Amino acid sequence: xxxxxxxxxxxxKSNEIILDVNxxxxxxxxxxxxxxxxxxxxxxxxxxxxxxxxxxxxxxxGFFDEKEREIFKMLITVSGISAKTAHTILS
Length: 91
Prior knowledge:
alpha+beta
C-alpha cells in the first residue's frame, strides 16, 4: 500500500493533482480541502494516501490528514458506498 507521497505538484485539476515524486508522476484524487490549500504548481507537497485496488485499475486517493483517511476507510466498509463515493462525501 502507498501510505503517503511527497513531491512537487505538476498539475492541479478540480479534484485531482499530479504529483512528481522523483520523476514519477502520480495521479491522486484529492478532497476540496487539499485543493483549497494548494498555492501553485512546482511547490513541494506531501499528502496521506489510500490505494484502491480493483480488478482493472489502481486509484490513489489523497487526504489532508490521517483522521480524514480513517473516516474514508470506515465509509468504504458500508455496503453500496464505493471509494469514489466515499471520497466525494468527504469533499
